[in-house]
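Write out the 3D structure for:
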Amino acid sequence: MRTQILLSCVILLGLLAVPAFAQQVTAPKNLDHPGIKWDWKIKAENYTFDVSTVSNYDMKNVTFNQINKELVFTGNSTHDGNIAEIEIPTNLIGGNLTVVQDGKPVSAIVIPGTSSSTIMLKFNQTGTTDTSVFGTTYLPEFSSVALLVMVLSVTMVLVIPRLGKF
């Protein structure tokens, strides 16, 4: 019993004697326009996808064009030095992503991932800006084919063993 009390006291004193280190969080002084995170629900066929954007300008709207495999981000900025980070699920649009701003191709950093791709872009334009992201794949376009393949597979699994008995 004395040993347990002594060990408890040593542990308690050890915890109290250890200094706690913390860093005070301060906003950078040169950041005039902090980022705003926007979460968008994009409906495509029977699916709903979450597209996230973080930008230091006002992101007004995001629309999806299924035929062109294109997401159009409409934003408005009152300052230059704009930055944006866009996260797009690969099931919505994927493959080689191309970024076009107001009809002109722009260089953007595209980081492909397994479940989503991240696009980072920087531009100095003020006013309303349309940023389009084009993909080469759109997974739900094969949803009806996938259902057909599944039904045929299950049918074959159930029928083929019975054919061997005859």
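DSSP finds two helices and ten strands in the chain.
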